Amino acid sequence: MKKAVYDDEADLASLRDGVANLEAAAEYSKTGPKRDRIPEDVKLLVWARDGGTCVRCGAKQDLHFDHIIPVAKGGGNSSENIQILCKTCNLQKSDKIGF
Ligand SMILES: [Zn+2]
User: What is the pTM of this model?
Assistant: First the structure.
């Protein structure tokens, strides 16, 4: 199921740009207790897998990486537990599991 799709330099560069933008947009999420950092390669994989859009509504702005199962509830930092959500969907999700 896991496929590396970034074997092309140009694609990798644009992925990195996307991730950098995502990081900037995620600044607001510095609330709550300390969150484990998501590894860079997992971010790239999730970004590529989810197409750089909110997995719920398809928004392309105010995106950030979301733990499907919150770290506080035992979720990890693997790509299977990370998805892209926009700010709106993330706020609606709160910390529910199985969103
Ligand atoms: Zn959304």
Answer: 0.60
